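Inputs:
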Amino acid sequence: MTRNMTPFNKPSLVGDEIANMRDAIVRGQLSGDGHYTKVCNAIIAQMTGSRAALLTNSCTAALEMAAILCDLHPGDEVIMPSFTFVSTANAVVLRGAIPVFVDIDPRTLNIDPEKTAAAVTQRTRAIIAVHYAGFPADMDALSQIANDHGLVLIEDAAQAFGSTYKGRPAGSLGDMAAFSFHETKNILSGEGGVLTLMRPDLLERAEVIREKGTNRSQFSRGQVDKYTWVDIGSSFLPGELVASFLYGQLQQADKILARRLSFFDQYNDAFADLAGSGRVTRPVVPSDTTGNGHMYYLMLRNRADRDAFITHMQKEGVNTPFHYVPLHSAPAGLKYARFEGKSLPVTDDVSARLVRLPMFFELGEDISKVITSARSYLC
Ligand SMILES: Cc1ncc(COP(=O)(O)O)c(C=O)c1O
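Outputs:
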């Protein structure tokens, strides 16, 4: 990266992260489930309107826990978009089950409820809705499908911390949700994530799965007199250094949200005329939702136009990456998954045309450079 390059993302300290890490060391517990993990779990449950929250090492880990909680068996199917990160699908494949990819809505880029309903079979056990760019999927329609067929509804809310749907926060919209605190996300701890639950009946097993398949959490609370191996599981919990850093970020969640939303609005205003003339497509904020300023993307005319834009921006000193490569046509997708219908045309089209603009807490005045550089290509 050249010295004056504007990165796509940059992690920032926003509050008491370092002081908290020191305090965690002084407190004398660096393994998981100490003071900072507990305060993070409590504040996240409150912020997401969920019944319980369990910090994990990543959103990937939270999705793997969710897949175990679904009790998937080989041959079971889980419906999800192909326009997502590999972890959504891997969590299912690791249980021997089959991801069934369906197309996305061309306006919201979220899973299409009609296509979801059409993909339900006797083997379907769950739906995973990804809230792309932080904008919640059409959860009422998906809940209806899940209820009609007795399916578990999981939110892959990796990007959606702080977003709402019909006044309800992401994390309270399905049976369980997985969030990411990876350094590219709004609230970050380097690597990190959380599983939130709306069903209290899942909590006891979730705690066991997260603690290597043992009832150690119950033991710590004095509910059993020794802890032992009771179920499958893995080491899904982070240590206290990560949790203490995360707590510093969570305390500043409102400030981070406001700053990112202001960048989103600045971008949106700057490209309004080009959207009006049809030169680009801007993000569509689905009705009844509020976003969290996680991402700002543009869609260009076609793949060649998008790739030329990325090259131009690189020359201008701005990093503007593309996003998901569709999973249904990826090597592992062909091997482990199937998709609904003959093709997923919206997914292929969006993946070829979408480009993301820099978005991070300290973007500041660099946003003018990004906008000027982008307009010099687009106008
Ligand atoms: C939709 C989605 N799900 C899951 C993940 C995985 O998150 P993590 O890196 O915290 O495991 C990502 C990562 O960006 C994502 O975009």
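Remarks. The domain at 253-378 is CATH 3.90.1150.10 (Aspartate Aminotransferase, domain 1). Residues 58-60, 84-85, 87-88, 130, 156, 158-159, 180, 182, 193 surround pyridoxal-5'-phosphate (CB under 6 Å).
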